[in-house]
Amino acid sequence: MYVIIIGGGQIGSYMGELLLKNKCDFVIIDSDHNNIKKLSKKFNSENIIFGDGTDPNILSAARIEECDVVACVTGRDEVNLVCSVIAKFEFQCPRVVGRVNDPRNDWLYTIGMGVDAAINQADIIGNIVVEEMSMKSLMTLMKLSKGDHSIMQLIASEDCFASGKKIEDLNLPKSVLLIAIYHGDDFIVPNGKTVIYPGDRLTVFSSEKVIKEIEHIFTKKVN
């Protein structure tokens, strides 16, 4: 996988660290000298490009024609939207993710503006607060821009159907994908042979239509 990150602040830098740990190919584009200086202490020079992420020449230099995902995560919504439009409609990037800084601009982050998935930090935090207070076992982290799929987090309960089973034996719905598993302090990129244990924290991509089925598999006690 090859990812282009536009914006080398805290979020862009953290994304780079995650991609590096997972041995993914990536480059971070930023036009701020201070950010570039900080990035150079963490990443190799081939992972960093100094320049304007809205400049098609810079994007071409970053090999955007070859990338799988463009993540527009600067601190300015207008920049993120312009980058999204260029990435999607000029370079036909398969997946474009956009960071929403001001919740009032959330309505702009649509497929018509080139955004496949919008990361609205205020919405994420709001969901975490509300759903933690209601003691739900499943927490919505992010709704994708089309609204019918979400990225969620849940904790596998004791004696649930999935406990002690391999993922390939769970018969998960086709619209469900396990993205990551946190087993204690260990981060796991799951595959079919990965075993689910009670207390595992799961990050799941799923259709809204099968949420109850997911809860039944991972959080409901088997009688």
Task: Walk me through the structure.
The chain starts with a strand and ends in a 5-residue tail after the last helix. The strands form 2 sheets. The protein has a 6-stranded parallel β-sheet, with helices on both faces. The protein has helices spanning 10-21, 33-40, 56-61, 77-90, 121-133, 211-218, and strands at 2-6, 25-30, 48-50, 69-72, 95-100, 117-120, 138-143, 149-155, 176-183, 186-188, 201-207. By secondary structure, the chain is α/β, with parallel strands linked by helices. Helices cover 27% and strands 26% of the residues.
State the gist of this model.
Helices cover 27% and strands 26% of the residues. With 223 residues, it is α/β, with parallel strands linked by helices.
Fold topology:
Layout (H helix, E strand, L loop, with lengths): L1 E5 L3 H12 L3 E6 L2 H8 L7 E3 L5 H6 L7 E4 L4 H14 L4 E6 L16 E4 H13 L4 E6 L5 E7 L20 E8 L2 E3 L12 E7 L3 H8 L5
Parallel strand pairs: 1-2, 1-4, 2-3, 4-5, 5-6
Antiparallel strand pairs: 7-8, 8-11, 9-10, 9-11
Strand content: 25-35%
CATH topology of the largest domain: Rossmann fold
The CATH C-level name of the largest domain is Alpha Beta
Please give the alpha-carbon distance between the first and last residues. 42 Å
Order of strands, main sheet, comes to 3-2-1-4-5-6
CATH homologous superfamily of the largest domain, by name? NAD(P)-binding Rossmann-like Domain
Q: From the helix content, strand content and strand pairing, which structural class follows?
A: alpha/beta
SSE order: EHEHEHEHEEHEEEEEH
Structural domain tally: 2
How much helix is in the residues?
Answer: 25-40%
